[in-house]
Amino acid sequence: MKENLVPESIRVVVGVWQQCRQDAMPIRHDVFIVEQHVPPELELDKFDAVATHVVAYSEDGQSVGTGRLLPDGHIGRVAVLKVWRGRRIGRQIMQALMQQARQQGLPGVELSAQYHARSFYEDMGFQAEGGIYMEAGIEHIAMRLVF
Question: Where is the N-acetyltransferase domain (predicted)?
Fold first, then answer.
């Protein structure tokens, strides 16, 4: 696993699912299944095994955020624990995922953004494509960033 130190004493670790699962799963469970009521069978999928994962840790070692990058350049499962939001941790996770995509030689990245988070991704250069659609009972919009 590779580590990057980022502002606010947040440590971002990049690794594979076997390395990140123990710390990423509780975050994804709390954010997607408990908070957003996403059915567990939709949240967990076969793509975790082939994705590059990122986990953000607080100064005391608590895992506070996560995200993944699929081999085709799709970013997903970006989540930050509620009490840690508003501290630019999501941005740090996204930057780490985009850096991984560049290192893998991908021409860009895409994601299915929850519509309420559209401006978060636009601030990082993503552009919306198409209209709003429902996924797991939540409004989403497709977004893309070309490097």
Answer: 11-147
Residue labelled with tokens 């893998």: 104
Q: Which amino acid is at 113?
A: A
Q: What is the spatial distance between Cα 141 and Cα 101, in angstroms, rounded to a whole number?
A: 21
Considering the entire predicted model, what is its pTM? 0.91
Which DSSP letter does residue 36 get?
A: S
Give the pLDDT score at 9: 87
Query: What are the average pLDDT values for consecutive 10-residue runs of the chain, which has 147 residues?
Result: 58 96 97 94 92 97 97 97 94 97 97 96 96 94 98
Q: Return the domain boundaries, the chain.
A: 2-106
The domain defined by 2-106 folds into Aminopeptidase (3.40.630)
The burial class, CB within 10 Å (0-12 / 13-18 / 19+), for 11 is: middle
